[in-house]
Structures are given as structure tokens and as C-alpha cells.
Amino acid sequence: MSTASNTATGTTTSTTTNAALKGKVAFIHGGSRGIGAATARRLARDGAAVAIGYASSAIAAEALAEEIIATGGKAIAIKADATDAAALTRAIDGVAERFGRLDILVNSAGVLAVAPLDQFTLEDFDRTVAVNVRSVFVASQAAAKHMGDGGRIINIGSTNGQRMPFAGGAVYAMSKSALIGLVKGMARDLGPRGITVNNVAPGPVDTDMNPENTEFGASLHDLMALRRHGKADEIAAMVAYLAGPEAAFVTGADLLIDGGFAA
Question: Which helix (H) or strand (E) holds 233?
């Protein structure tokens, strides 16, 4: 397998693939940064054509698409605001029309607002629900119309859906726990069509949302069996497994990849 290094991002992308996803088309909702970007690279490396959905990070999304293309993959960047249901649906429909199919949806868009209950604003509550829950439903509903047998819907949840050990995170935890119920129900709805629906539930991951080299980031390690942040590529690897043929019998699951945070 040949590889090409990207000095700007510190990542290594393969110019050949294991072909597990050859011929598949994936839409990465929230794919321009962090876990979403790592997932776009990984699915492209595994042979999928990837559409990188972004709300405001156009430059990052376009750069990522160019990086994937430069290393032999297929990618496009497409604006898809998580808070605009009509625009998000149009973006997904447009990807399916452009590529002639849609096989994989990864819902990676997310926001985090932390504050004590008496200080948490209704605006932050509504935005958290809109991005972390409502947009997942909207995107899944839109994508499922285009999927056939073997379709995959994969959400980026959180270990906080099962454990919230510090104050101020109630609304975020609520939004991620909502995805657990959503995937169980959608797995029943879509199972007869051969479409699987799952959550990947990371613990602390070293991204812009939760960097490791901060006082708060370091404090989380005391709550974990493995005393470090995860890497975005590690989360992307689990997403790739769920997107691939070996996970055809996995559905309705909330799969922790959290370094023992919830152990």
C-alpha cells in the first residue's frame, strides 16, 4: 500500500485502499473538522466517494476534498447547515443525484454548550437540540430515501449519553442520550430494508471541541481507564467498521469508544 503524507494536517492518506467500500457513496454531515474530517479521510481511503457537508467551514471542507482527490480518492464539499432542515435535505438529495446513489450517512455535526442549570440559556438549549438531535433525524430521513440493502446510518454520539460526571453538561448529555433511543427505533424501521443504524459514542477526543492540552481536558483523564484523549482517527476506524460489510449484523447499537470513561 502506498501512502502520501499531508504536512499541513499531520495525517497520512493512502493512495490505494483495502476496497471495502469501493463503489459506495458517503455523506459526512459535519465533515470539515475533527472526527468528521478523520472519517471522510478514512472512508475515502477505504474506497468510498465522500461528500463533505459543512455549515460555515467552507475553506476547510474544500481543502479536505482537494487533499482526498490529490491522493487518489473521490470527494466533494457541499454546504449543509444543520439548523436548516430544507437545506440539509437538498444537500443530501443533491449528493445522491450527482453520484447516482447514497450508501452511507455519517451524522458528525455537533455542538457543545456547558453551563450550570440556572445559567443555561434557552437559546443554547434550542441550538443543542437542533444540531445534535433534530439534524440527525432530518439527515437520516433524507438519506434513507436513497439507500438500498446494505445502507448505513452512523451517528457520532457520546459517552456522555450514558455518563455525565461533572456539572453543567445536562443538556449535552440529554442530546446524546436521545440518539440512543433514536437509533433503536430507526433500526426497527429500516431493518426490513437491510439498512443498519448505529451510534458511535466517543469519550474525550483531541479535537477543537475538546482539546487534550487544557486543564479541563487533563481533568477528564482521572475519570478514565485509559488516561488519555482518544484520537480522531481511532473514532473514524470504528465508523469505517460499521460502514463496511463486516458489520452487516450490527444495528440499533450504541458503541462506546471512550477509553473506559463509562466503565
Answer: helix 232-243
Q: Quick check: 105 and 153 in contact, CB under 8 A? A: yes
| DSSP three-state, residue 25 | strand
Complete domains list, the chain, with CATH? 12-257 (3.40.50.720)
pLDDT tens readout for residues 187-210: 999 999 999 999 999 999 998 888
172 is catalytic: yes
The answer to whether the beta carbons of residues 60 and 33 sit under 8 Å apart is: yes
Given a cut of 50, is residue 9 above it in pLDDT?
A: no
Per residue in 126-151, pLDDT tens?
Answer: 999 999 999 999 999 999 999 999 99
Distance from the Cα of residue 25 to its chain's centroid: 15
* Residue tagged active-site, from 172, 180, 229, 240: 172
Q: In angstroms, rounded to a whole number, what is the distance separating the alpha carbons of residues 246 and 240?
A: 10
The alpha carbons of the chain give a radius of gyration, in whole angstroms, of 17
pTM for this predicted structure: 0.91
Burial of 149 (0-12, 13-18, 19+ CB in 10 A): exposed
**Percent share of the chain, pLDDT over 70:** 94
Burial class (CB in 10 A: 0-12, 13-18, 19+), 117: exposed
Cell numbers of 79, please? 454546504
Name the residue among 176, 187, 169, 181 with its Cα closest to residue 251. 187
